[in-house]
Amino acid sequence: MKYKARIEVGLKPGHSDPEGETTKASLVELNYPVEKVKVSKVYELYLDASSQEEAERKVEEMCRRLLANPVKDNYTIQVEEAQ
Amino acid sequence: MKYKARIEVGLKPGHSDPEGETTKASLVELNYPVEKVKVSKVYELYLDASSQEEAERKVEEMCRRLLANPVKDNYTIQVEEAQ
To answer: Rounded to two decimals, what is the model's pTM?
Structure first.
């Protein structure tokens, strides 16, 4: 069966976020009263699996092996059957 | 007052997504049966504004001026009062 997964990967609190800092500086330069910008990434993908559990297990594994850095990233996963 | 905004910026359908393509190739190489990976970006930020409407207007403007490319990006905005 086909499943759709949505994975959001963001920095753990306390880790420096250079992209967020740069974005904040640009927004402040444009006169927006902005504080603390955090940048995260979202991966949306389709995968084959025999069950919801297997799909979740695979996506969890993908995060650990490729999509997230366990030292500095947090991630959340949502998996649902694809329409 | 302080508001918290969450902005998700992703490619419009039909635009090529090199980062998604590369991620897909890496996952397939690791033997995950993955199709079509789409990568989006999430900005979370805090800003000052006098009302919810003003906060939304400012965030909308930030997207048009800096965070999103109107030619190739879609974006969604959520604004709420910060705790």
So the answer is: 0.92
